[in-house]
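Checklist before submission:
- one chain only
- standard amino acids only
- sequence pasted in full

Submission:
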Amino acid sequence: MSRAFVKESEGGEEELPDRPISPHPNLVTPEGLARIEATLAALHQEHAAAQVAEDRAALARVGRDLRYWAARRASAQLVPPPPDISEVRFGSSVTIVRDDGRRQTWRIVGEDEADPARGTLSHVSPVARALLGKTVGDVVRAGNSDAEILAIG
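Returned file contents:
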């Protein structure tokens, strides 16, 4: 690693640059909040192990991750599951059919929870923004094509 990307702290341990924090509201589902808390607990254990081993590189990496996840926990805004399924909201599962006949189902979640390959979209993604507030039968722009909302759950 280039020395330009690390700096020495007063204790002699290297600090990595902080992970960028999104400017968007940190909305989280109950599962997302639990995942943040589990990640923090695991990182605290890793930090303790790195201190015992006097592993400076691990301390720098874990320290950076602890700062990120502590900030995400502090800014987390828990959003309970939507009370009804009449329109797409944060936490909703949405099934669409694209112009080419492909059906896709996604759940709209927080940024740290999003994994499109596993069926979750960040609430700030273009497709999620197009879906929010819509109802079954509405047609939205999803990527390069139109899609009709088939179901909301």
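Reviewer check: The chain has a mean pLDDT of 91.
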